[in-house]
Amino acid sequence: MLHTTLDEIWTGVKKGLHDEVGAHDYQMWIQRLRTVGETEGELVLGCPNDLARQWVEDRFQTLIAMRVSEAAGRPVPVALKTAPEEEGPGDKVSQPPIRQLSLGMDSTPAGGGRFLRRDFTFDRFVVGEFNAFAYSAAMAMVNGARGVNQPLCLLSKNGNGKSHLSQAMGHEIKRLRPLDRVFYVTVEDFAQEMVSSLHRGTISEFKEKYRRNCDVLLMEDLQYLTGKERTQVELAFALDHLLEAGKKLIFTSVYTPAKIPKLHESLFSRLSASVVTAMEAPDFATRVRILKKKAADLGLPLAREILEFLASELTESVRQLEAGLNGVAAKSSLLQVPMDLCLAEGVVKTIVRQKSDITLGVLKRLVCQYYHITNEEIIGKGREQRVVKPRQVAMYLGKRYTDQSIQSIGRSFNRYHATALHSIAVVERLIRERGELQRQVEFLCEKVEAGEF
What is the pLDDT of residues 172-211, one digit of tens each? Predict the structure, then answer.
């Protein structure tokens, strides 16, 4: 029978694709495909979810159709269909199928730490060459692929999706295994919780929580471990227990463990065992897809020429793309004008001009004027509170608004790399606490973004 023949042909072709596409891609994408039917001589392959269907369609469908046609001795069209495992007689997979998480799902902390963002899910994550390996590694860990037991470290500059991908893993793990205790925290959260437990005399409960009561640890911003000696020691002990128990560990960082200054040797050895996956800035085609996806999510009827213009001009990061898209929508709404190419050009010019005009020197002057201190004081050796806080704020603004490395920011203030990292972390923590410093920083950010410097 035709269906049986196509099924047998696919079984043979599938085995041959292992060496052709490579073991990793085979395990992640090809192995999950199975025949679910045929229509007028067309082979229909079932994919476990929409993301897998899109990925195979973009990268492997032409190759699969070619190999199947060669094996059949005649042209055989190949169609892809999102289908649950129970559909069709094809290959069975050991991992559960990955359905996409509903955006209405509860986003409360799964076990400890912060809330997972409701929109940071796999179905809203756009995959391209710049993040393909990171995405594959994340999916492999989530689905418990054999041989994937090492910790995972997602590495990228700010704004390129590492937080989105790590939180998407948290959402999907909770959907697949609701009883798993997922802790999503930043390094600063972990350090602050440890300090608080020391002050309250509850350090034993803190240790028990992270060593015994955690199944999945999602930890952001490893670079801020610099200078936190006690935090590093406690984290190393916690990781020992979690690794021995076979728990899942996912980290994000701007730097590899080898480039994080003053990292304790015991912690360095544990973090260095992670699978480090770099996520670069997206290429043009992926930037267009990202904008198209986000515009659809926001209900923005943007013409393709506008999307392509934004994608061609805003090349730095996903976050910059979002700023451009939001800028077009906001300006159109405020001025009551259509979202056309002329409007997009004005928004892009503002973003690019501000980026080029904002320098560390400009930020220093702005901060000095606001806090009534001199440039000599902000770069000097003084440690008075009236000088230290403005200096830390200026470093934070330097990281937020310039392309300068942490080393360069530190040198600009006559400080070491580790001191600059610590200063930025302090400001970020105080901003989260929503006190007076947050209001001061917001005011300064408004000045910068309005070009009033």
Answer: 999 988 999 999 999 988 988 898 899 999 999 999 999 9
Q: Of 320, 322, 323, 309, which is closest to residue 157 (Cα–Cα)?
A: 320
- Which token pair is 25? 């891609």
| Per-residue model confidence (pLDDT) at position 114 | 80
| 6 vs 343: CA distance, rounded Å | 53
Distance, CA of 242 to CA of 235 (rounded, Å): 10
| pTM for this entry | 0.64
Question: For the chain, what's the residue count?
Answer: 453
Q: Are 293 and 134 in contact (CB under 8 A)?
A: no
According to CATH, the superfamily of the domain at 2-82 is: DnaA, N-terminal domain (3.30.300.180)
Higher pLDDT, 443 or 249: 249
Element (H, E) at 47: strand 42-47
The pLDDT, as a whole number, for residue 424 is 92
Place of tokens 């999503």: 184
Q: Which CATH entry fits the domain spanning 360-449: 3.40.50.300, 1.20.1250.20, 3.10.50.40, 1.10.1750.10?
A: 1.10.1750.10
Mean pLDDT across the stretch 85-106? 38
Angle at alpha carbon of residue 287, lines to 253 and 167, rounded to 5°? 35
- CATH 1.10.8 domain span(s) along the chain: 284-356
According to DSSP, the residues that pair with 343 across neighbouring strands are none
Positive or negative torsion for Cα 226, 417, 379, 430: negative
E-state strands within 64-118? 78-82, 112-113
For 112-278, CATH gives 3.40.50.300
pLDDT in the model for residue 367? 95
Confidence check: pLDDT of 110 > 60: no
Residue ranges of the chain that CATH labels 3.40.50.300: 112-278
Q: Where would I find the beta strands (DSSP E) of 121-230? A: 152-155, 182-186, 216-220
- Least confident span in 142-156, 215-229, 286-300, 402-416: 142-156
Phi-psi region of 42 (alpha: psi -120 to 50; beta: other; left: phi over 0): beta
